[in-house]
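Section 5.1 Outputs to date
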Amino acid sequence: MKRLVITGTGTDVGKTFVAAGLLRAMRRAGRDAVLQKPFQTGCRRQPDGSLDHPDLDAVAATSGWQPDPAELPDLCPYAYEPACSPHLAARLAGDRPTAAGVAAAARRLAARHAVVLVETAGGVLVPLNEREFMLDWMVPLGWPVLVVARAGLGTINETLLTLRALEGAGLSCCGVVLNAARPCAAEEAWIAADNAGTIAQLGRVPVLARIPWLGAEARNVDWRRLEDAFPPEFLSEEEKAQAEA
């Protein structure tokens, strides 16, 4: 895997969490891997007038990655203060993000790094302006897509709708990750287990990982448990051995 778009079935399903775990595994294996977060809302204004990048900072803190400040325009080309949908945040800022701008930034990163992971803001039909959606920059890239979904009740509909949208756009989904974004009661475990089989059968995609609740605070997470949830083919055997050393 050298190029991957990580999307979700909605907000707060754990996209950044999964992206951080994958990036951490890649970098621990010695790969030159970076994460692009094209849209970041809810940023804070710094004393020098610039905006911070909380998601990139969180991923960097857990993965051992130190983003190059010179690459920030490509790593996060659109950053806004309001914590809302990108199209609304951009409108309030008087900006107009474009799908072409996101795709161009991703290609520049791909020309400089061995592995590029790109995380969408929300799901595939989140608008980025008055006429374009997340899908509109994913399509020209043509990179495989990993879908992160909730593990529990209600996820089947959301996940299958996302898979249908990807298929209709001609994009390849390499698999689904079911993430327990909240603690799962024991009596709900059988629902989550059935969800995995149902999504794999009806969505015709592999469920690559079922990630248990690992805690709300990244500093307390056992990241190896997240890495170990993925099949070995995400890393070569040599890289897997290096990561386990």
